[in-house]
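Researcher: Sequence recovery benchmark, item below. Answer with residues only.
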């Protein structure tokens, strides 16, 4: 466990009567997290009276009605609540039962989450389309082999086409798959035949993603689908449409644009923040932004500008899913997960947090008001009240990335050193185990294959390890 009283630079914590005093931290009455760095920052939040998700989860009492999906708001004759010991016997104004209402609420949640996932994939497809049309000069195809493999999977002709032309055609094919009206999604064909047979038996083979979302919302409109089991069947099909359509498209097209991951070493946790450098945290989901921020922070012009402000460098780290994107491809260290976003700002060492879509707490703005940190939103789909908005555009991506980095550098002299407290906690990590790399690792240089793994497992020839899994986890 990290030394609670150790300052970011090491040594003893200065006394409270000195200008550079940092926050004394006491052992918690109870642990709110298993991460020592997070607990360290939560104690500082308590001392400063700053609210975070860890405090709010105790302050905000869950609604028992909403928790059970027992409140119906799909029409304006209600809302209708199903409470009490006889809730299973109650009926809404329209006669709806609790099971119907709960199923409606559930599938609408699925529609929201699946839409967020799939729209991320659509965004990647739009970026690939811009690359294919020569409208995004700061991007290019980094995995041409995968481009051709996925293009063939979508039924495209490969002969006589360069990467740019093929990228355009693949992007259009992927976008068409979102709105497919007939047949099933292209990537469903990757599933095992027996699995597809089972999906067909129960009528849940996913069609076009957009169609599944619209149908789900239609079914749950007042007076439409009023059989809970039938609604849940559609929830399964909608979830499959996300996984085998939106999310899978996002993964494959990201690899084509930014490179297919392979093992790379890095570090993780709040200890990756630097006391003497400009700290920028990228947060959200879209690699089209984070990839260019990596390039911008490593640009000699930006590094020279940071030095002119007294910083020894520019340190980019990540939070949440976009952090994983630049970790597994570029080795950029994650400062933490979803629940670390407010805690990273509490270190007082973050000049700027840039966010695009999904998983960004509105609370980061309130935490940032206590420090010099600037919160910058970038997506046309997502603004936060009180944050600076700089809209990202793939057509001039690097210029915008540099604009954001320059803002962070300009903010570096505003850092209050008496408020800085960076935990020492960090861990070594190795990321980047794409399925392509695993097949290559197991099957040899010239022919990737899972055969060595499956053969070893079935014949129990693995030495010194349990045969059922050891061969797939080495390396």
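Model:
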């Amino acid at each position: 466990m990290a030394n609670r009283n150790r300052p970011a630079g090491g040594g003893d914590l200065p006394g409270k009567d000195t200008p550079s005093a940092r926050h004394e931290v006491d052992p918690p009455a109870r642990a709110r997290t298993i991460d020592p760095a997070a607990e360290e920052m939560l104690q500082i939040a308590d001392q400063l009276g700053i609210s975070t998700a860890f405090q709010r989860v105790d302050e905000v009492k869950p609604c028992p009605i909403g928790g059970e999906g027992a409140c119906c708001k799909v029409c304006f004759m209600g809302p209708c609540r199903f409470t009490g010991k006889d809730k299973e016997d109650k009926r809404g104004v329209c006669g709806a039962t609790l099971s119907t209402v709960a199923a409606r609420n559930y599938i609408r949640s699925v529609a929201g989450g699946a839409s967020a996932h799939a729209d991320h994939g659509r965004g990647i497809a739009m970026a690939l389309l811009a690359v294919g049309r020569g409208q995004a000069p700061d991007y290019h195809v980094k995995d041409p082999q995968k481009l051709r493999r996925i293009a063939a999977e979508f039924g495209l002709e490969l002969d006589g086409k360069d990467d740019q032309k093929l990228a355009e055609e693949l992007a259009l094919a992927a976008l068409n798959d979102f709105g497919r009206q007939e047949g099933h999604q292209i990537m469903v064909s990757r599933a095992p035949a027996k699995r597809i047979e089972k999906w067909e038996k129960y009528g849940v083979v996913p069609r076009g993603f957009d169609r599944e979302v619209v149908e789900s919302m239609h079914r749950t409109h007042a007076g439409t689908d009023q059989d809970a089991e039938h609604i849940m069947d559609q929830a399964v099909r909608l979830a499959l449409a996300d996984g085998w359509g939106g999310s899978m498209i996002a993964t494959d097209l990201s690899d084509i644009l930014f490179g297919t991951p392979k093992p790379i070493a890095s570090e993780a946790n709040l200890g990756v923040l630097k006391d003497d450098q400009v700290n920028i945290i990228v947060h959200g989901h879209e690699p089209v932004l984070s990839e260019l921020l990596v390039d911008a922070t490593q640009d000699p012009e930006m590094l020279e500008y940071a030095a002119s402000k007294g910083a020894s460098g520019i340190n980019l780290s990540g939070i949440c899913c976009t952090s994983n994107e630049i970790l597994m491809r570029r080795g950029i260290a994650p400062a933490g997960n979803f629940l670390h976003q407010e805690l990273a700002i509490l270190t007082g060492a973050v000049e700027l947090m840039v966010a695009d879509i999904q998983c960004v707490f509105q609370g980061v703005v309130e935490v940032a008001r206590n420090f010099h940190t600037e919160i910058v939103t970038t997506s046309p789909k997502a603004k936060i009240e009180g944050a600076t908005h700089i809209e990202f555009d793939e057509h001039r991506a690097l210029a915008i990335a540099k604009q954001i980095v320059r803002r962070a550098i300009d903010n570096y002299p505003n850092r209050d050193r008496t408020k800085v407290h960076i935990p020492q906690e960090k861990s070594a990590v190795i990321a980047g185990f794409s399925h392509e790399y695993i097949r290559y690792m197991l099957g040899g240089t010239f022919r990737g294959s899972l055969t060595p793994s499956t053969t070893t497992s079935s014949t129990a020839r693995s030495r010194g390890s349990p045969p059922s899994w050891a061969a797939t986890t080495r390396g």
